[in-house]
Design brief:
Blueprint: H1 9-17, E1 25-28, E2 31-34, H2 38-45
């Protein structure tokens, strides 16, 4: 599910509550990837 923190204040609050202060953040099966790391994203997705 995609969330846009510019349009969804609750999504921003959730991101900050998790300790993240920068974007993008991708969460896959509970694992967070901060920034764009295609290799790590692919790995977490099993690609």
């Amino acid at each position: 599910m995609e969330k846009n923190i510019r349009e969804d204040e609750e999504a921003l609050k959730d991101l900050l509550a998790r300790g993240f202060q920068s974007t993008p953040v991708v969460i896959i099966d509970g694992e967070a990837v901060v920034g764009f790391d295609q290799e790590r994203i692919d790995s977490l997705l099993g690609l």
